[in-house]
Write a structure and sequence with these properties.
alpha/beta, 5 helices, 171 residues, seven-stranded parallel sheet
Length: 171
Amino acid sequence: IIGIDASSLILPNPTGVQRYASFIIKNLLEIGREHTFRLYSPTFLPEPFTMHQVIIKSPFAWTQARLPIELITRRPDIFWQPAYMLPPFCPCPSVITIHDLAWIKFPDAYKSSDIQRQKLTINRALQQRSKIIVPSASVRNDLLDNFTLDASQIKIIPEALIPLPDVTISN
């Protein structure tokens, strides 16, 4: 059983990371039919993801409280977080994707609270010995330069081109 944090699929105006997650999850479902997937979300997912959704209702602290309870009570074999906001406790092997470390390279562009949250979540994943997907050798090197981890934890998987939405002046 492969558990995936699919909460980013419900956002009305997806960013690049959310588009990445949607594209990868959709394709995993198509090519990985021999696997059982659980797509965790705090609310209903759009098609084509509904067949695999596990709705975990929570008015707040979804990633911090409700998701870990679900992972403990119905433990998947592995859990993938398309971003890197791993729950504080993950009872199974985990994989995270770190797309960049812009907050380290350009700290003036971020609030100090966001930088602290980023550090906390990456350190949490490192403490839990998560495997880490990065899109490039540059991000891999940034991780190794700024955090204490074993290079064998990191796997470079370049991001493919994905279809972008049509954009007009009005939207």
